[in-house]
Specification:
The structure is a homodimer. The first copy, chain A, is mainly α. Chain A contains 18 helices and 2 strands.
Chain lengths: ~350, ~350
């Protein structure tokens, strides 16, 4: 069987998972192992390219935060069945498909310190294997048999893609404002966090109020998570930790740090940002541009304010969980939330 | 509303639709207009890029053969509801998504005489708008509410993508044999014909025997259709009609004409095919190579034999319909089948 070749070994990077996830591992570890088993069972193609690419991407060190959210959300709702395992797998397939397609969109060559699939194979392989994973996600949902789950995931998939298209349209566009930025990340990133959490409530047959609360928790957590992600791409501390930074800048992506910096910049700094961001695609960026952008960002305390915005969303997320009883499960979700806004790597 | 901008005007090319489709237009025309209306209603994004690309691709002259098959299959089964309209739209969305992604995979710049979306916009836009259409297809299925239809479409989607990956792996590989070729096209092309026909039976709640017959009809029709498509890419008659030919050859695709030519070629011809097909990706094709390939294909009557193979599948498809009562609807399907193997353009 080809699927026995699927390499599910964790990379060193995965082993160095974040404190919150390590601390609460006992709450989700069995299920996550079953997710891995379920992945191997479901990726049973006799096309070796599919097996190789999926092995590559799954073993290159993701935090698995989305499937963990499905598992913990289900548990928070007292769920005792096993549908959360297959649906967490579907969520992870969605995420992995998005990563594969994003790498083509961003023309990335590295992700999490490993070469991306499209740099090892090519764009064709990334597009098609991404499509394969999307199909597999919907196959899992079809076997699960809940039309409500199907609705959540197909709606989410449309919203996520629309968000990515809007992000593409906002690239190199310095007229993008904070509200538009939040709208974009709320679609392209938060929506899968929403789906991951909401599915946990739906399979537990929770009342509407609880489902809604988990939905909002996912949205606010996802938004905080993405703001921090975008902030870290300008963080000197990241660089000290040996991570590559400046990708968003080089791609001309207009994220919160750039939006705030541009708003606060003086005339000369504005002109500089216009040349380096708006004309990034035309190769008008020069050596030293990124460092100059970072110095403008530092000058106006942009990163501090970005982190502050992320913390506001984290606080809302915390409020969203207040209707659930205290305990280990709730605490684990709150710790993941805390980690998301305080992580430095 | 942005969606009012969706341009659904038919191109000249669409108006010159094939005889069989024109002849039986009265059987499906009302429904096809409703499909168009349904498309406009469903593509309601405020991202102008989505509207522009979908307008571009939908107005650039497809035959709409897949949604027509869903409509006619449903009618053959005596269906009288309106689910066939929304599901035919979902089938067309799947097909359009596949076209967008294929253009990235094949690095095509022209399709049906119009520039492809990825040449007018870029790969990013084609990937993301393709994903958007896939999501929209699953949204439609979710609203239709049949888990059986979901299973058919999600299984088909996985099979189609797997077929495309296998085609990618077979590119430049002259060891690909006829059986492997049929397996690839049966997945990548026929499977959506299967789904299009099968859905018609499923919503009509036909007994298993009839559903199975329409499923087989779709598979055999799709296989015949693709073999002819692959044959036309080497046809002098096509060239006389002003169509571009030779795309498959230039991309190093190993389709039936090349497989048969390679089997029958003498030593020198084999060496030539090895250089020009196996090394196509490395730019080792030379001026005049395509013409030499065509002369080898002509020498060994390869096109005639390919068309013969297509006709065998068409005959099987004809047999598949024998259990249905004679009448206009059945005749329209048989005429579409006949057209598929006799078309010259």
């Amino acid at each position: 069987m080809m699927n026995e070749q699927l390499n599910m070994e964790e990379s060193e990077d995965t082993k160095l998972v974040d404190n919150a996830l390590v601390k609460w591992k006992h709450l989700y570890d069995d299920e996550l192992k079953n997710v891995d088993k379920f992945i191997v069972e479901n990726i049973d193609s006799d096309a070796s390219l599919i097996i190789n690419i999926i092995s590559h991407i799954l073993s290159s060190g993701g935090k698995r935060i989305r499937p963990i959210l499905t598992i913990l959300s289900a548990k928070l709702c007292g769920y005792e069945g096993d549908r959360h395992v297959s649906l967490a797998t579907a969520i992870e397939f969605f995420h992995t498909a998005t990563l594969l397609h994003d790498d083509v969109v961003d023309e990335s060559s590295m992700r999490r310190g490993s070469p991306t699939a499209n740099s090892v194979w090519d764009n064709s392989a990334s597009v098609l294997v991404g499509d394969y994973l999307l199909s597999k996600a919907f196959q899992i949902i079809s076997r699960d048999g809940s039309l409500k789950v199907l609705r959540i995931l197909s709606d989410s998939s449309a919203i996520i893609t629309e968000g990515e298209v809007k992000q593409l349209m906002a690239t190199n566009d310095l007229t993008t404002n904070k509200e538009q930025y939040i709208d974009i990340i709320s679609s392209k990133t938060s929506q899968l966090f929403v789906a991951a959490c909401q599915v946990g409530a739906v399979i537990s047959e929770q009342k509407a109020k609880n489902e809604k609360a988990l939905e909002s928790f996912g949205r606010n957590l996802g938004t905080a998570f993405q703001i921090i992600d975008d902030t870290l791409d300008y963080s000197a501390k990241q660089e000290q930790l040996g991570k590559e930074i400046g990708d968003d800048f080089r791609e001309g992506k207009v994220t919160l740090p750039i939006i705030l910096a541009y708003q606060r910049a003086d005339k000369a700094e504005k002109r500089f940002l216009e040349r380096s961001i708006e004309w990034a695609a035309d190769g008008l960026q020069e050596k030293g541009d990124f460092e100059r952008a970072v110095s403008i960002i530092d000058k106006y305390d942009v990163l501090e304010d970005s982190i502050e915005t992320a913390k506001e969303y984290a606080n809302r997320a915390k409020q969203n969980l207040s209707i659930f009883p205290d305990g280990e499960i709730k605490q684990s979700l709150l710790d993941i939330l805390d980690f998301s806004v305080s992580r430095e790597y």
